[in-house]
């Protein structure tokens, strides 16, 4: 009983010292990033008619942000992307790897216990004979010739390094913060892939609208060619008008064919985003160039809580700060405890009996007396890493506000441009109608009709292109605002430490 009491007293004292140990290194304080009271480019600050933000202004997107466009086909594609996108899967596995590193680091809190059981049975030679002395030495061994011997051992070795200076705690914190960085990177990648899909989707719809414009132009040019041919054959018009009409038609037909190229490439890009081969994927033709819905922008002070890249940059700073604590811990001595115990016996039957026990308790303390400035250089290295991460965080914040301002300005200005361009299309249609009447009555040459038709086509193409740009700018604004994510969704240090589920650790085939 005294044996167990002494062991218990020894480990209780060591455990008390470990728990009472201090954690060296600087305390982490999240950086402050002041935000402006209002966005400079918000449409609410301008009197011009155009795109409007959602009301109230302090509302934010939540969850599936793409549902704001109210397009069932887009919703279905986004759902498929969240399941099958390979880049998202890669970032998820990186996150799972980061979580595993946290659990690996936590194992240093506990002692390492090892054992090496052994058993041997031996028989000595019977030809050794009796012990007798002759000149030159001993020629025989007495008493053990032909005997059998047995040796059984069940040792238990323990090695433990108490965390007296917070080295292990800082190591665990470093990996926990790094896992949070990986989680934020996963959300950034997810948002990027979702936004790319939405942009490609609206680009395809825009290409379908352009294709419709070209198809209508080709049909109109065919009718013009028939008219000029008839007038030429009756001698009312000259041949050059017929040639001009034919050239205009052929040029429109070539441009109509070329429009299919961009659509095919956008369609192939969406297939890759969905984890499918381009050969087995297609999107039905559906011309659509609608105005984007009002987007809840929120207040600038909310932006830093909504962007996963900002969260990743801040967590990188916390991880770097923990590294400084690890470097400072190298200045203090390392204490290692190594108790050993077990049972030994010459017979297997008596191995587990009380007299067969053996034990020893020991420990060691190591301290570096001279390292030529290695520890100081290491501390300086991690301080520089922290300062670099701080600069990266501030740059990320500046970039976040720049992107929001850029896309707010794009939406506001594009909406005004589209209104003017729509009026230009209406005027061009009237221009073509009037010019065609003058040509049919013989007042103007066919060249004037070609100029009027070219003007209309140019304005129609510009209008459709601007409408597509406005839709993609809306997607980019949502991306700049962080989509439907906010910092409350970032896993806590406790959550990244939990064991993964069986499904999360299954080897995929």
Structural features, described:
The protein is α+β, with helices and mostly antiparallel strands and 509 residues long. The protein has 2 domains: 397 residues, Up-down Bundle (Outer membrane efflux proteins (OEP)); 34 residues, no CATH class. The chain has 10 helices and 9 strands. The strands form 3 sheets. Strands 1, 2, 5, 7 and 8 form a 5-stranded antiparallel β-sheet that branches. It has a two-stranded antiparallel ribbon with strand order 3-4. Strands 6-9 form a two-stranded antiparallel ribbon. A hairpin with a 2-residue loop joins strand 3 and strand 4. The longest helix has 67 residues. It is elongated, with a radius of gyration of 39 Å. The two termini are 56 Å apart. About 3% of the residues have low confidence.
